[in-house]
Amino acid sequence: MNDTLQYVIEILGTFAFAISGIRHAAAKHFDWFGGYVCGVAVAIGGGTIRDVLLGTTPFWMTTPMYLICTAFALLFVITFHRKMKWLQNAWFVFDTFGLALFTIAGLQKSLLFGQPYWVAIILGCITGAAGGVIRDVLLNNEPVIFHREIYAMACVLGGLLYWLLSFLGMPQELVVIVSFLFICVVRLLAVRYHLSLPTLRDVTGE
Length: 206
Prior knowledge:
Blueprint: H1 2-27, H2 32-54, H3 65-80, H4 88-112, H5 117-138, H6 152-167, H7 172-192
Helix pairs in contact: 1-2, 1-3, 1-4, 2-3, 2-4, 2-5, 4-5, 4-6, 4-7, 5-6, 6-7
């Protein structure tokens, strides 16, 4: 059951993150292949780093489904881009869904490999946030984790909630749903109300 749930979460996360990456590539006027490459980089980047740290074969190398899923995401964007122009917030929602889904996927896989919760939370954060960093590097944008808005911290908070609910004995499926919704809500509220962590003060005096 855990393996099935893990697979479903990673497929959904791949589709959501791939759309996010392809959308940003479209804003830079990339061609279809460039958009696909960007979508793949976002969709598999964080999970690949996680799997390397866990000492296992990267998840996308075990089945072509993730690459096929990204191709469907590209087809989706190409087909519906005109109809979705008025849904600008939809792009942000896809990115948020991908962030939450991959954070949970990273947590679960790390725990399946016997890692303690504190390690699983860090790897969950890497799984969720690293893809966005890779995307921004490819597109020559400031990495999203350096923005003032809450991004990676939503992953950390979601991971802590996942640990707490699991510790309290809540059923696994419910833990996943609640943690997913929590990460999404934190991210959405942070952007809606411009919530952020305090910025560092310039210590150079310049």
